[in-house]
Amino acid sequence: MITTRSDVTVKAVRTSAMDYDVTQAARVSTLGAEAVDAQGSTKGLINFLMRDRHGSPFEHNSFSFYIESPIFVAREFFRHRAGWSYNEESGRYKELNPVFYLPPPERKLVQTGKPGAYTFEAGTDLQWMVASGVAKESYRHAWSSYQVQLRAGIAREVARNVLPVGIYTSFFATCNARSLMHFLSLRTSKENSKVPSFPLREIEMVAEQMEAHFAEQMPVTHAAFEKHGRVAP
Asked: Any idea which positions bind dUMP (predicted)?
């Protein structure tokens, strides 16, 4: 029996990050060893670093997240390589779970315009019924085909080939604040962004939860990121 969901899971499993990490790393350029215990303006220095795009001081910290999402979201996520580390559950080594993604009723379904200059608009009730109905039927058939192969003794790494990208996967993602800000600048759509972005809604759902944790752990850095147009330093 398959199950469906329309959300994503983002859990902060390990965080070693605070605004002081940034200023301490930045001050070593002028103070040397004294930077280890140096105090001073956190807000002013971080805003200067963000404004003038001195990025390396934002790398001396770490965020680790556990994420559950459809495979099509994970594949977009894994395009972020600089400053990121990943480990994903394997369909070779475990039987996958029958959990699949369905777009929620409020998910915009209709694309208008051409690549690079398009928008999405709300679909009709009928269009949502078609999208969800077709997806459920496809998922049921794919899951049945997967199970038939497993019962026949076919290896998991072969049997999984029939499964669609709408099935959920789970993975760990670890990054630093600089790489996280780059991810957020591309995977969220905000009016104050200097560079417009048009992310897939489902990966934006992941990004929004990660950003909330980032803002909680490094509020001064996040505020500077916002102030200077959401451009990663």
From this structure: 76-79, 88-92, 160, 187
